[in-house]
Specification:
- The structure holds two protein chains of two kinds.
- Chain A is an all-beta fold.
- In chain A, 0% of the residues lie in helices and 48% in strands.
- Chain A has one domain: Sandwich (Immunoglobulin-like).
- In chain A, the strands form two sheets. In chain A, strands 2, 4, 5, 6, 9, 10 and 11 form a seven-stranded mixed beta sheet that branches.
- In chain B, strands 2, 4, 5, 9, 10 and 11 form a six-stranded mixed beta sheet that branches. A five-stranded antiparallel beta sheet of chain B has the order 1-3-8-7-6, with no helix packed on it.
- In chain B, strand 4 and strand 5 form a beta hairpin.
- The chains are: A mainly beta, B mainly beta.
- The interface between A and B is medium-sized, with 28 and 21 residues.
């Protein structure tokens, strides 16, 4: 049982490049989330999904896109990378959403945009 | 304005030296307060959920309590393996799947 798997763990991008952060969970969770964590700041919600085919914006969605074609996968697309997108990105999943707060997080993807 | 504030930012304890971490919040209509542990280079790990003032939850050396303005994470006789950053998050309102996270308290327990 792998839980939540994120790839890649590290990536350096040049300004203007695009990339996709992958997230997969094997717990059959309906709810999935993308957060970013910056030094001295709390985790910020980028996008979330309450089930396959359903996504919605969080607090800081600009510059990102998501899709959810299967229950297991929730990729995060960065278009035209900017230095402000330098951050650690965490994917999380849950059976009941934030009602219980019991989110299962991946180990993170550290992205640097130069 | 900050809606969730954690203090202290960092705390160094000797093994066995009990202490408390604080999470204060200013949101109204709290629908849940959550504690997580985050080890360096890892994602947060869920610890506790508290829903109403007076509620307490325990797990090993950790006990979380909740009042109408704040939550405490009490650490009794900590061990070096308790060293981590402890995050709290709150949920309020309806519908939107949003948690507001604090910036965390970095705990270091020395042997």
């Amino acid at each position: 049982n792998a839980g939540v798997t994120q790839t890649p763990k590290f990536r350096i991008l040049k300004i203007g490049q695009s990339m996709t952060l992958q997230c997969a969970q094997d717990m059959n969770h309906n709810y999935m989330y993308w957060y970013r964590q910056d030094p001295g700041m709390g985790l910020k919600l980028i996008y979330y999904s309450v089930g396959a085919g359903i996504t919605d914006k969080g607090e800081v969605p600009n510059g990102y896109n998501v899709s959810r074609s299967t229950t297991e996968d929730f990729p995060l697309r960065l278009e035209l990378a900017a230095p402000s997108q330098t951050s650690v990105y965490f994917c999380a999943s849950s059976t009941s959403g934030i009602n219980t707060g019991e989110l299962f997080f991946g180990e993170g993807s550290r992205l640097t945009v130069l | 304005e900050d809606q969730v504030t954690q203090s202290p930012e960092a705390l160094r304890l000797q093994e066995g030296e009990s202490s408390s971490l604080n999470c204060s919040y200013t949101v109204s209509g709290l629908r849940g307060l959550f504690w997580y542990r985050q080890d360096p280079g890892k994602g947060p790990e869920f610890l506790f959920t508290l829903y109403s003032a007076g509620e307490e939850k325990e797990k090993e050396r950790l006990k979380a309590t909740l009042t109408k303005k704040e939550s405490f994470l009490h650490i009794t006789a900590p061990k070096p393996e308790d060293s981590a950053t402890y995050l709290c998050a709150v949920r309020w309102g309806t519908g939107f799947q949003k948690l507001v996270f604090g910036t965390g308290t970095r705990l270091l327990v020395s042997p």
